[in-house]
Design brief:
This protein is α/β, with parallel strands linked by helices and 401 residues long. It has one domain (7-388): Alpha/Beta hydrolase fold, catalytic domain (Rossmann fold, 3-Layer(aba) Sandwich). The chain contains 17 helices and 9 strands. The chain has helices at 12-23, 42-54, 58-65, 112-116, 147-150, 154-169, 182-193, 220-236, 238-245, 247-256, 258-271, 279-282, 285-298, 301-313, 342-348, 364-367, 369-380, and strands at residues 3-6, 70-75, 78-85, 93-98, 129-134, 175-179, 198-203, 323-331, 349-356. A 9-stranded mixed β-sheet has the order 1-2-3-5-4-6-7-8-9, with helices on both faces.
Length: 401
């Protein structure tokens, strides 16, 4: 499987077109103290657009992203983009990091160095990882994949492509996985379909399939959690319903309007973060806009939201499937729906570590990297010995890492 180095190089014409669209943007009237209760705060959106036009520097952010070692590989006809940072330590463990929507590989840009070179972050070299962060199929610099194959059980198809990247492309026979949002679902699929390869998975949420629970068999704690989740879905879940039902109608608007794209994505970051109404507190405009820019310059908002439609029609993972590999859950308080009962998690997961974090939300590695990194390190520390056990014929599992 051929892989080659990759650098982000957005054409000047793309940036000039963006500036022209921003200059022509029709933001409409901003009502005083409108707030976020009906979607993105128009005053905040106006501030973001103003900064986007006159203060934000894509070339600076592009150069920052290009400090990450990036590659592309062709897997089953799909051109997968990924970060691959080799660990600095005596025996780095391969660590696959999986994002979701509406973020991208950018979710993990703050944690690549602490994981791959822990000494630089005050850690120990024995905890080093070989870090792999793919852009999921349909996202960012991977872009759309074969729609026929991705239309049915889209996340399972993505999991298979990523497994082939890890094993055939990079030569890792066993590896660790961490993920959130759609990345949580794909991590679970990898552990179920390829238990011989996955030593354990670290998750920041259960994945939506866990909520498919017969209320008649649910405990009181589970019933309460499900009721809260359903209430939240009614008040804050319209985005998912639109993306499941009419993704093409939505994508046409978002792909054409940078302000529309920003408004749609910012609303999710506000709803799912521990920002107390102030997104600058949790992320800052540069990070918010860089994540949005990745969607804009690659024109992948349509492909990314189409996965909701595909999964609604043909789910990749159901509550009837169980992960037997060790599982850690790091649960952040502003995760949509809050912290679930442990019993609900144990219906589908072999939970070995349970951490309720003091702060943070859905985009944990981006919002609270100093909480996220140690939890991942501590969970996988005792599992590292699995990679040193001899296989048949005297070979070592980690001999090609």
């Amino acid at each position: 499987m051929e892989r080659r180095p990759f650098r982000i190089q957005v054409e000047d014409s793309v940036l000039a077109d963006l500036q022209a669209r921003l200059a022509r943007a029709r933001l409409g009237e901003v009502k005083k103290d409108a707030g976020w209760d009906a979607g993105t705060d128009p005053a905040f959106l106006r501030d973001v657009v103003s900064y986007w036009r006159s203060g934000y520097d894509w070339r600076r952010q592009e150069a920052r992203l290009n400090q990450l070692p990036q590659f592309v590989a062709t897997v089953d006809g799909a051109h997968l983009h990924f970060v691959h940072a080799r660990g600095r330590g005596p025996r780095p463990v391969p660590l696959l990091l999986l994002h979701g929507w509406p973020d991208s590989f950018f979710r993990y840009h703050k944690v690549v160095l602490p994981f791959s070179d822990p000494v630089s972050a005050g850690g120990q070299d024995v905890d080093a990882f070989d870090v792999v962060v793919p852009s999921l199929p349909g996202f960012a610099f991977t872009g759309p994949v074969d729609q026929g194959r991705a239309r049915s059980k889209a996340n399972r198809y993505s999991a298979q492509l990523i497994w082939r990247l890890m094993t055939e492309g990079l030569g890792y026979r066993r590896f660790a996985v961490a993920g959130g949002d759609g990345g949580s679902v794909i991590a679970q699929i990898l552990a179920i379909d390829h238990p011989e390869a996955v030593i354990g998975i670290h998750l920041t949420d259960l994945g939506w399939q866990a909520l498919d629970l017969d209320a008649a068999t649910a405990s009181k704690a589970e019933q309460k959690f499900l009721a809260v989740s359903q209430k939240r879905a009614m008040s804050d879940g319209a985005y998912a319903l639109v993306q499941m039902a009419q993704p093409r109608s939505l994508a046409a608007a978002l792909n054409d309007s940078p302000v529309g794209l920003a408004s749609w994505i910012l609303d999710r970051f506000h709803s799912w973060s521990d920002a107390d109404g102030d997104l600058d507190k949790s992320f800052g405009k540069d990070d918010l806009l860089t994540n949005i820019m990745i969607y804009w310059v690659t024109q992948t908002i349509g492909a990314s939201v189409f996965s909701y439609h595909a999964e609604a029609r043909s789910p990749s993972l159901t509550a009837a499937e169980h992960v037997e590999q060790p599982v850690a859950l790091a649960l952040f308080p502003k995760e949509p729906g809050g912290v679930p009962p442990r019993g609900l998690a144990e219906r589908t997961l072999n939970v070995q570590r349970w951490t309720e974090m003091p702060r943070g939300g859905h985009f944990a590695a981006l919002e609270e990297p100093k909480l996220f990194v140690p939890d991942v390190v501590e969970f996988f520390r005792p599992l590292r010995e699995l990679l040193a056990r001899p296989e048949q014929g005297g070979r070592h599992v980690a001999s090609n890492i």
